[in-house]
């Protein structure tokens, strides 16, 4: 039978199944119809009956059933229902069991909550999640003004909030992933970032042809590993992106170079494998890197196998080049500037 | 113990895939789930045999709230006597409309898991109580 003990695992797998069989829109339809209107119909019923207070009751019960470490705050006068998830048991199940079938498990919450609330005149006025089991939500009745409320345990003040990468929503609308760039989709952002590249050159240490010197072409885009970037191996030419190691031990040096770049900074990338999510990027004065797994999974370049050894950082860079549809030059240790 | 409301989603997912894409797609979904998501359990069944299958289900049902299940094994089969199916019970107790083909998920998901591991699966009964039997594939074929 399909039980509830491992539901979150095959729920994640189901998202991937629906995406690959029927496409992105089919998954959104599934969340809106099967989950919001059918599975979670009790939320709709209680929200319709008692507005934010009804939703508060439903979420409080779910929190008890699922043993959530969270706080739920209701202020009807100020028209705010606030959830602060400190340790999501659902995402936690995936992390604990090294599961990552779909490109973005956390999207399912806004995927069903958004359409459900719309049906009962409530909206998500603000929401963020860090893909590590922490998130916050603010909801309000759409026909009434709301006012800010004080939160005793704001998850954004918790040290765990520094982990992972953020997706942010304002009034049901997803916000750009990177400041200054309009896209809200990491795969689209990567396509745009590399669209001018004729080929990808990977600069990393586990090179098959690393002893050879490679002369860069003007339309090459270089992806360096964090270690090589930290060592200054990209000096003298444009490094388009830096892919950080699964266990990055040179973040201080990476940050030092990154924050002192005179030209355009490279895009920072990271795998965010389920067992390696919690890295100290912010503590080292680096922005949260962009995730690469969504792109690799979407393009069929990577299937996460629990407890199996993950590809190396260089291999991930090569998979990314394949996902981008670009030829990739086997990683080279010594690069020379493009010849004019 | 897990949250039984997840059974609502199992029921809703079956209804949605059937209504949107047809029964053939729903069967493919259930079978793929067995083969792909439960790959590790299948491997354990393959190496551990019928005793492993019975023990795996005994442990599994211990974690399902409200389940009343007896498991047994002999040299020819692993048997599950599901006296109270926790999913059907919770769906009924919660007043949910259960899709009439709900129990077929066991046929296809457990069936594909069994086949992957070199066994066959059969079910008699359903909608709250049933008997499930795993037998060696060659025995079922009369070889």
Topology:
The complex is a heterodimer of chains A (340) and B (143).
Chain A: H1 7-22, H2 24-39, H3 41-65, E1 69-75, E2 80-87, H4 89-96, H5 107-119, E3 122-129, E4 135-141, E5 167-170, E6 173-174, H6 186-193, E7 199-203, E8 213-215, E9 220-225, H7 226-230, E10 239-243, H8 251-258, E11 267-270, E12 290-291, H9 293-298, H10 313-323, E13 328-329, E14 334-336
Helix pairs in contact in A: 1-2, 2-3, 2-5
Chain B: H1 6-21, H2 23-37, H3 39-62, E1 68-73, E2 77-84, H4 86-93, H5 104-117, E3 119-126, E4 129-136, H6 137-140
Antiparallel strand pairs in B: 1-2, 2-4, 3-4
Helix pairs in contact in B: 1-2, 2-5, 3-5
Largest sheet of chain A: 6 strands, antiparallel
Main sheet specs of chain B: 4 strands, antiparallel
**What is the total number of structural domains of chain B?**
1
Give the N-terminus to C-terminus distance of chain B in angstroms: 42 Å
Basic shape of chain A: elongated
- What is the chain-wise order of helices and strands of chain B? HHHEEHHEEH
Beta-strand segment tally of chain A: 14
Distance between the termini of chain A: 65 Å
Strands of chain B, count: 4
Helix content class of chain A: 25-40%
**What is the fold-level CATH name, i.e. the topology of chain B?**
Muramoyl-pentapeptide Carboxypeptidase, domain 2
The Rg value of chain A, from CA coordinates, equals: 22 Å
- Class from helix and strand fractions of chain A: alpha/beta
Order of helices and strands of chain A: HHHEEHHEEEEHEEEHEHEEHHEE
Question: What's the architecture of the largest domain in chain A, going by CATH?
Answer: Alpha-Beta Complex
CATH class group of chain B = Alpha Beta
**Which CATH class of the largest domain in chain A is shown?**
Alpha Beta
